[in-house]
Amino acid sequence: MRFTKMEGCGNDYVYVNCFEEKLPGDVVTLSQKISDRHFGVGGDGLILICPSEIADARMRMFNADGSESEMCGNGLRCVAKYVYDHGIAQKPKLKLETGRGVLSVDLELKANKVSRVCIDMGAPILQNSDIPTTFPGNPVKNIPLQVGGVTLTVTCVSMGNPHCVAFVEALTDDLVLGIGPKVEHHPAFPRRVNAEFVVVNRRDDATMRVWERGSGETLACGTGACAVAVAGVLMDKLDRKVTIHLRGGDLELHWSETDNHVYMTGPAEEVFSGEWHG
Fold this sequence. Notes:
By secondary structure, the chain is an alpha+beta fold. It has helices at residues 27-35, 73-85, 173-184, 222-234, and strands at residues 2-8, 11-17, 45-50, 57-63, 68-69, 93-98, 101-110, 113-120, 140-147, 150-158, 162-167, 194-202, 205-212, 216-218, 241-246, 249-255, 262-267, 269-275. A hairpin with a 2-residue loop joins strand 6 and strand 7 (101-110). It is globular and about 50 Å long.
């Protein structure tokens, strides 16, 4: 099976072109094995680029633990780059099918290759039952969350997948690596949750680290950055246009007042290709 390694702000996945390739056996086991950074290719998970009856291509995304996720912003930018650069659909605006529905993608080209991608991520989901969380509110904001001996003030947002955002004084390993997994598995989140820890630098600038559901800490999370942008506006900490610094790079976010959609712009890179015999 041929594969391609790609990354968006360091959020790296193994991509398989299912227009041409046949998966060897169970996709959950494949995701676990191929994502292993010591015995496999290595990555935050596995992403399948599949044919779609309603879009130019369909993305299916599996975390490193084999669980399937609804959406991945950094992954979708890379899917867009692959679809264009490898000739599946060569047009400057693509429609890509995800677990969240069909999303519109605008491509920035350099030397006829995709360098940056802007995704219309759709409207944030703020109803508690739809995130889902058992916390009260619509939106769910300014909620005290007691976990691991600390109390966080959190705001919950779904961008097709669930996020719990905490604005903090400093981004420490104790928070991200110690508290992050406890937030992921907190009983208030029936489908688990991605945990974002955020420091506000200015109203148009913030820094975040993320503990991703099913993958642990990653260098970036596109849907998480969108959730942070929304939570920042809801908490009156950030403007609607903001640059968010992640460990693997920067993303530009805009929560539009016109259509209520979140627009995310960032890079996508192809790293290498190979053949999997596992």
